[in-house]
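Aim 2 progress update. The chain analyzed this quarter is reproduced below.
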Amino acid sequence: MPFLSSLDISASGLTAQRLRMDTIANNMANAETTRNSTGTGPYRRQVVVFEARSAQPSSRFKGIMQEKLSQQAGLGVRVKEIREVSEAESPFRRVYDPSHPDADQQGYVNYPNVNIVEEMINMISATRAYEANAKVIEATKSMAARALEIGR
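Predicted structure tokens:
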């Protein structure tokens, strides 16, 4: 694995975790939103799905070489999708409030399937992963600087 490819790998992790934190913040901001932009129901919780980043060869020979490298080391992470959590996976929270404009005939209002405690735990996890990637970048920069000093 090339020495500085760890910078690319960590940078991909930083980007992915930042998007994950943004999505979590969006979930928390919409925890009480009873009507989405289309007016068809409450906000649905969103989750970020990651996958391993794969090499995209520009030539056949380069593709063979990258395939051999990818078997030895990872190439980072990328966001596969941001998907909405279905009501079957996590049902909406029903609250009795007949005076609410979005109440049904029985007086119940559907609130989003967002659990603030779960979102805070996910935010802490994403923050720690972001910090770990930032530390790897700092360590790589430090090692590269030391290697250059040795060559003097």
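Residues 116-150 form the longest helix (35 residues). The first strand starts at residue 46 and ends at 52. These observations will guide the mutagenesis experiments scheduled for the next reporting period.
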